[in-house]
Amino acid sequence: MKTILLALGLPAMMLVGNANDPQPAVHTVTSTPAKGGWVSLFDGKTLKGWHLYGKSGTGDAWTVENGAVTLHPGAKEGGDLVTDKAYSNFDLKLEWKISKNGNSGVIFLVQEDPAKYDHTYKSGPEMQVLDNDGHPDGKITKHRAGDLYDLIKSSSEPVKPVGEWNQAEIIVNKSKLTLKLNGVTVVSTTLWDEHWKQLVAGSKFKDMPNWGTFTSGKIALQDHGNEVAFRNIMIKAL
User: Fold this and answer.
1) Both ends of the chain: CA-CA distance in Å?
2) Is residue 6 part of a domain?
3) Helix (H) and strand (E) counts for the chain?
């Protein structure tokens, strides 16, 4: 793997697993709810159930390594990876691990309509994934790991150091939005009300038509040009 990464011009200290990593549970992608109503969105082995935004395949930038969906941004065909299905009221849980100086995100309520929205972030909100200490966004309020990107700053920062797995949870229950990081609630707000409209109006999304107004949409793993890994991706309808 090190030889391949160097050939691509990528740093060798990437996010592939090592002997000290706890091995993730391997789930089966299925539309049938398991115990507790949870449905796996990633089987630990393939990208079944996912595709590149606006395309039919998964490209070659996203691969599965050591039980994790891993982005290698130097590959030929990349872009945000989105679920085949759309979701409305849900509880989404996953784990993420970012590379040094890296930036990514989990975007939700995404409308897959490339003619109207050429990127996933132009229709859906984002829970930020970031190396707070190494990436320039770490110096920007509301752009740090766990933040509701460019809208709400996390109430605390329970993020783990680069190279370690973080547990993230996004809950959309009717108009209630909750973001959790490593078991701690870091953002809690109401979607679509007047306060929400004010937040959007004061953000970088203010001139994006219909941004943040959708009650149903797809989930996206962001390709921001840095290596990132995701695993144990589960969802439950609420």
Assistant:
1) 41
2) no
3) 2, 13
Q: Report if residue 91 sits inside a domain.
A: yes
Residue-number span of the structural domain to which 218 is assigned: 24-237
Q: Regarding beta strands 68-71 and 228-237, do their DSSP bridges make them parallel or antiparallel, or are they unpaired?
A: antiparallel
- For 142, the token pair is 């509301």
Structure token digits, residue 182: 């490593």
- 190 dihedral zone (left: phi>0; alpha: psi -120 to 50; beta): beta
Both tokens assigned to 148? 């509701």
In this structure, are residues 199 and 60 in contact, taking their beta carbons and an 8 Å threshold? no
Q: Give the whole-angstrom CA distance, residue 202 versus residue 233.
A: 32
Q: Each residue of 2-58: pLDDT tens digit?
A: 333 333 343 333 454 443 454 444 343 444 455 689 999 999 999 999 999 999 999
User: pLDDT tens-digit profile of 194-222?
Assistant: 999 999 999 999 999 999 999 999 999 99
Residue 40 CA: distances (Å) to CA of 28, 80, 99, 174: 6, 19, 25, 22
Please tell me the distance from the alpha carbon of residue 235 to that of residue 15, in angstroms, as a whole number: 24
pTM comes to 0.87
- How many domains are contained in the chain? 1
